[in-house]
């Protein structure tokens, strides 16, 4: 009994010690006292609860959760539900935390707060919004501002990831967090300029708020502003200001922020700017996206976008196997998503396997009809790249939901025209016009008003038929247009032109509907028109022509103006007293007075034959003068051709028979490009 009393007294003293340490925030010391209490009584519920709280405050969530599970019989869900759920939440076991909260017998305010956080992490934004609204409505304490901030974050997430138009919550944007969340919601709506203004306001409020604390340095402020600057850079990137965005992204990376999620997003955005350029920088940046804990900081769509970009980077860096592996993994995670199969097709095209790429896309389109339109557009593009325009047209026409769209009609007509398949082009117009007729009839219950798009298609069809000589087929379209607007003179003129070749009588009847010349008088300021730049130019030109005509009348009365012949340019040393050289058109070597190049005396005496042969003149060594060579044309001024029989050179010393001809050919080539002169 005495021992039990002493133990109880010690436990009481230790409990007061734990209480005092807890109030002072010294949870490490409090934990030591709690352990001493548990040595006295290991199943003390209060001591166990205190130990769990101390471990949580010290950041030992795994140990705290282990303690709760070990003493599950003592620490029931009624006692420890919040602490257990919080440990699971901090250990990123979000689904387990949700089950723990939902299984609690009593939903306390603390559990409701945690429930909102858990729903946000699970991206169940509608339920999360309802939970925070209930908390704000039923709570009155110092945490109201934090709850409003969380509420605005939920609205921003809905706008960004679910494309939901956010409702006006009526929150007073007095803090930089609220301004930042409001800017994110505006980005989700595409209101980039408004979002930038909100971010600038958030930056200003953040600086004001942090500068009031004397312990906060400029580096601390810049670190806090990093997320705001990151969002500013993202807006710049969306606006096409990639250089400004890249500069701001790199500034944030240099600060080395501790938020791995922020770094991963910035690195990913830099990779998207680089694309297939600067891949070495992209390879370095991709490491930031692989940091530990990133998967718990970003949304599913953000993580998915990062994985897509990794696959694309592998393709750009010619890592084909890595690209296939990543895209296959993405496809298994999201079988209905388009990007993985498009990346695989792009990789196959880089490997020149176009047929295999088209087959892959076709299989995906068959398995996922909802996404078939976009896939078929890609298939058509591949067929065009291969030069199979007709097959591309067939693929495009198989997309039923796009057949009537003006853009699709225009593309098909252009492609068929390129292939000179006018009948198919007209058929495309006809099908689109029929679709609009049926749609209009179903909407207006039999009435026949034409929509602007419908009328535009009819007009384009009529113009196309007229252009390609199909006037008979164009008549029905033109009549339909004129019926809709009888005052349209342009359509009436086209209709008369078409009937003039088919039914001249009908054309005459229709021509009566043309307005008279009096009614067609245009309100034109003649003086202003005459004084315009173009009219002045024409008037000046006309004046010049009139002056020329007057001169002709005064002179010989020439009907046509003779073209002046250009005087040929004479050489600088031209002397009109001296008779021009009659051989000036011949190459120098063929002129009668050509004596060859001057050579040194010794060189002239040296023979060019074999050793021991007799030295002869240059004329005797010229193979072109031998009997075996074809006779050259006589040079001007020479009496007769030189005989080739005297001084015959032995065959051994002669040049090949083809040599002179080759030489003559080369001379002719040179002569061909030369200009004549004196």
TrEMBL record:
Residues 560-570, 662-678 have a biased composition (Basic residues). Residues 572-593 have a biased composition (Basic and acidic residues). Its main location: cytoplasm. It holds the Pfam family SRP_TPR_like. Keywords: Acetylation, Coiled coil, Cytoplasm, Endoplasmic reticulum, Isopeptide bond, Phosphoprotein, Repeat, Ribonucleoprotein, Signal recognition particle, TPR repeat, Ubl conjugation. Residues 539-678 are annotated as: Disordered. GO terms for molecular function: 7S RNA binding; ribosome binding. It is found in: Cytoplasm; Endoplasmic reticulum. InterPro entries: Signal_recog_part_SRP72_RNA-bd, SRP72, SRP72_TPR-like, TPR-like_helical_dom_sf, TPR_rpt. Residues 94-149 form a coiled coil. GO terms for biological process: SRP-dependent cotranslational protein targeting to membrane. Residues 607-641 have a biased composition (Low complexity). TPR repeats lie at residues 226-259. One of its GO terms (cellular component) is signal recognition particle, endoplasmic reticulum targeting. Residues 540-596 form the Signal recognition particle SRP72 subunit RNA-binding domain. PANTHER family: SIGNAL RECOGNITION PARTICLE 72, SIGNAL RECOGNITION PARTICLE SUBUNIT SRP72. Belongs to the SRP72 family. Component of the signal recognition particle (SRP) complex, a ribonucleoprotein complex that mediates the cotranslational targeting of secretory and membrane proteins to the endoplasmic reticulum (ER). The SRP complex interacts with the signal sequence in nascent secretory and membrane proteins and directs them to the membrane of the ER. The SRP complex targets the ribosome-nascent chain complex to the SRP receptor (SR), which is anchored in the ER, where SR compaction and GTPase rearrangement drive cotranslational protein translocation into the ER. This is Signal recognition particle subunit SRP72. It comes from Edolisoma coerulescens. The lineage of its organism: Eukaryota, Metazoa, Chordata, Craniata, Vertebrata.
């Amino acid at each position: 009994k005495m021992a039990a009393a002493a133990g109880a007294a010690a436990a009481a003293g230790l409990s007061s010690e734990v209480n005092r340490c807890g109030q002072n925030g010294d949870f490490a010391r409090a934990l030591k006292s709690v352990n001493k209490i548990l040595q006295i009584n290991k199943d003390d519920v209060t001591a166990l609860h205190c130990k769990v709280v101390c471990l949580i405050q010290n950041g030992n969530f795994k140990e705290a959760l282990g303690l709760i599970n070990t003493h599950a019989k003592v620490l029931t869900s009624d006692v420890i539900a919040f602490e257990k759920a919080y440990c699971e939440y901090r250990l990123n076991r979000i689904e387990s935390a949700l089950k723990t909260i939902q299984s609690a017998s009593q939903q306390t305010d603390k559990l409701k707060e945690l429930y909102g956080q858990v729903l946000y992490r699970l991206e169940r934004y509608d339920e999360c919004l309802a939970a925070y609204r209930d908390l704000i409505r039923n709570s009155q304490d110092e945490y109201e501002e934090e709850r409003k901030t969380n509420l605005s974050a939920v609205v921003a997430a809905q706008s960004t990831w679910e494309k939901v138009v956010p409702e006006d919550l009526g929150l007073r944007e007095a803090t930089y967090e609220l301004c930042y969340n409001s800017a994110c919601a505006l980005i989700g709506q595409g209101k980039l300029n408004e979002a930038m203004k909100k971010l600038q306001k958030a930056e200003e409020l953040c600086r004001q708020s942090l500068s009031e604390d004397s312990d906060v340095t400029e580096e601390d402020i810049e670190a806090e502003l990093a997320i705001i600057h990151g969002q500013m850079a993202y807006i710049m990137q969306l606006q096409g200001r990639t250089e400004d965005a890249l500069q701001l992204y790199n500034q944030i990376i240099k600060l080395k922020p501790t938020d791995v999620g922020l770094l991963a997003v910035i690195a990913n955005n830099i990779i998207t700017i680089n694309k297939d350029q600067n891949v070495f920088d992209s390879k370095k940046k991709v490491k930031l996206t692989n940091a530990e804990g990133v998967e718990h900081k970003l949304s599913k769509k953000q993580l998915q976008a990062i994985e897509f970009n990794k696959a694309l980077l592998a393709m750009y860096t010619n890592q084909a196997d890595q690209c296939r592996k990543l895209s296959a993994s993405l496809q298994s995670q999201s079988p209905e998503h388009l990007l993985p199969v498009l990346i695989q097709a792009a990789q196959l095209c880089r490997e020149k396997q176009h047929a295999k790429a088209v087959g892959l896309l076709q299989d995906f389109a068959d398995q996922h009809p909802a996404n078939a339109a976009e896939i078929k557009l890609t298939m058509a593009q591949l067929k065009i790249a291969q030069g199979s325009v007709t097959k591309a047209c067939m693929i495009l026409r198989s997309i039923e939901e796009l057949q009537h769209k003006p853009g699709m009609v225009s593309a098909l007509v252009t492609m068929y025209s390129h292939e000179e398949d006018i009948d198919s082009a007209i058929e495309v117009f006809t099908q689109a016009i029929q679709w609009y007729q049926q749609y209009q009839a179903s909407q207006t219950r039999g009435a026949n008003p034409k929509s602007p798009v419908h009328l535009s298609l009819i007009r384009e069809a009529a113009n196309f038929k007229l252009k390609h000589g199909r006037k008979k087929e164009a008549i029905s379209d033109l009549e339909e247009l004129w019926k809709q607007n009888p005052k349209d003179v342009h359509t009436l003129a086209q209709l008369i032109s078409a009937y003039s070749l088919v039914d001249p009588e009908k054309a005459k009847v229709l021509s009566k509907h043309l307005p008279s010349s009096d009614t067609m008088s245009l309100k034109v300021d003649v003086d202003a028109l005459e004084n315009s730049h173009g009219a002045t130019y024409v008037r000046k030109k006309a004046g010049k022509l009139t002056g020329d005509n007057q001169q002709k009348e005064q002179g010989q009365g020439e009907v046509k103006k003779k073209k002046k012949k250009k005087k040929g340019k004479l050489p600088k040393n031209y002397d009109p007293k001296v008779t021009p050289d009659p051989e000036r058109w011949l190459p120098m070597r063929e002129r009668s007075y050509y004596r060859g190049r001057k050579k040194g005396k010794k060189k002239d005496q040296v023979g060019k034959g074999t050793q021991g042969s007799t030295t002869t003149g240059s004329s005797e060594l010229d193979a072109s003068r031998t009997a075996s060579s074809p006779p050259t044309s006589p040079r001007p001024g020479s009496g007769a051709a030189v005989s080739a029989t005297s001084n015959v050179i032995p065959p051994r010393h002669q040049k090949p028979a083809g040599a002179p001809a080759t030489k003559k050919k080369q001379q002719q080539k040179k002569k061909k490009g030369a200009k004549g002169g004196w």
